[in-house]
Amino acid sequence: KAGVTQTPRYLIKTRGQQVTLSCSPISGHRSVSWYQQTPGQGLQFLFEYFSETQRNKGNFPGRFSGRQFSNSRSEMNVSTLELGDSALYLCASSLVSAGISPLHFGNGTRLTVT
Amino acid sequence: AQTVTQSQPEMSVQEAETVTLSCTYDTSESDYYLFWYKQPPSRQMILVIRQEAYKQQNATENRFSVNFQKAAKSFSLKISDSQLGDAAMYFCAYRVEYGNKLVFGAGTILRVKS
After folding, report:
1. Has residue A46 got a pLDDT over 90?
2. b/e A8-39 (16+ beta carbons within 10 angstroms → b)
3. Distance between CA atoms of B51 and A78, rounded to whole angstroms?
4. Which of A83, A105, B97, B113 is the 20 to 30 A CA-CA neighbour of A49?
């Protein structure tokens, strides 16, 4: 079974631009969540989607948004990029949105904002 | 708000020896889940072990085991017979019963010496 696939693996953008990251979950998984990882703030929860509905949102500005499609694939968008948005963005999928069901992570997208 | 604290930024262990990584958390919930993830240089977060808070029995997965002390809000990870492949960043994470929002600790870098 294929794992969680994130594309692209690396991205370089300029301040003020916008970016879209993609995540394909494990087949059959309906929950997709996104995390930002930086050396200073560590791993922080961005949002979770389940059956195309946002279930939960972390403490990030409105420039960060996401969506989930009917095939459970998810995209994350960051508008008006700032230098501080440079980070590793991790996507994780799960069968359900409750219980002990573990999150399976992708390899991440490394975003560099210059 | 829930918080997770890993007080050891870095640990070292000799190959074949045993090492324990510490984790404490703060929550007012009674039902929750705890996880240990490892992140090797490849960046992919890999689930090591998980524990339901309502279970008193400590979880075990091969060479990995936990010491879960609910009253003390402590969740340490013991790695026995350490191997070179165990070298990675280890993250302790907390999750409430519903939703896939994980709260992560800052991580512990584990170095394995041959």
Report:
1. yes
2. eeeeebeeeeebebebbbbeebbbbbbbbbee
3. 34
4. A83
Mutate to test the interface with A, among B100, B101, B104, B108 (most CBs of A within 10 A): B100
- 3-state DSSP call for residue B73? coil
**Does residue A109 sit in helix, strand or coil?**
strand
Contacting residues of B for A45, CB less than 8 Å apart: 101-103
CA–CA gap between residue B68 and residue A5 (Å, rounded): 33
Q: CB contact, 8 Å: A86 with chain B? A: no
Residue B56 and residue B65 in contact, taking contact as beta carbons nearer than 8 Å: no
The pLDDT value given to residue A82: 98
CA distance A105 to A103: 6
Q: Is A50 helix (H, G, I), strand (E, B) or coil?
A: strand
Residue of B nearest to A55 (CA): B99
Residue B96 has pLDDT above 90, yes or no: no
Instruction: Tell if the CB–CB gap between A43 and B102 is shorter than 8 Å.
Output: yes
Which residues of B fall within a CB distance of 8 Å from A94?
100
Residue-wise pLDDT tens digits, B11-49: 999 999 999 999 999 999 888 999 999 999 888 899 999
Residue whose structure tokens are 């696939």: A5
Secondary element (H or E) of residue B4: strand B3-5
What is the model's pLDDT at position A66? 97
